[in-house]
Amino acid sequence: MNYISFEDYKRKWIFTHQSMPVAPEDYTEIKPMAEARGAQLWRDFISNESPTPDHFGKGDWPVMQSVWENDVNWQNPWEEEADLPEAFIAHFPWEDNAVVYFCYEKNNIIETRWGMFKKYWKNFLFYDDKPLLLGRKNKQVAMFDQNGTAKLGTRP
């Protein structure tokens, strides 16, 4: 089984919070991965050794300075109830139906589509402790930080 049900997702509340609820018909587009599937994706795309962003080491691409091209402020638009900042739209020239992964840690990854992420980006960022956004077939990547910035880059 690749996914757990939306109803069983331990952080479901970030998508159902009364201040920013996701439309119920979009729940099916937010697919929390089962632990084993998330762990495999994490190993394939992010790290063989580190279970969380806080544990990235020398062999992990997220700590390589050459990956990151620039920093973008996401906190101000998030607080101002604005759309996803234009810098993200420019950096990720993806079709709305492109599969993306929002990776909080090895055992907490959500699969969705780029269009859904753009629509509900604020919900995803309720937890902002260095989650990674990456595409299944694309090399562009972002890592969000609690200080309100995100690094944009291209993974190897």
Short description:
Helices cover 24% and strands 23% of the residues.
Describe the structure.
By secondary structure, this protein is α+β, with helices and mostly antiparallel strands. The mean pLDDT is 94. A seven-stranded antiparallel beta sheet has the order 1-4-3-5-6-7-2, with helices on both faces. Strand 3 and strand 4 (108-113) form a beta hairpin. It has helices at residues 13-16, 35-45, 75-79, 86-91, 114-124, and strands at residues 31-32, 68-73, 99-105, 108-113, 132-135, 140-144, 149-154.
Question: What is the element layout, followed by pairings?
Answer:
Elements: H1 13-16, E1 31-32, H2 35-45, E2 68-73, H3 75-79, H4 86-91, E3 99-105, E4 108-113, H5 114-124, E5 132-135, E6 140-144, E7 149-154
Antiparallel strand pairs: 1-4, 2-7, 3-4, 3-5, 5-6, 6-7
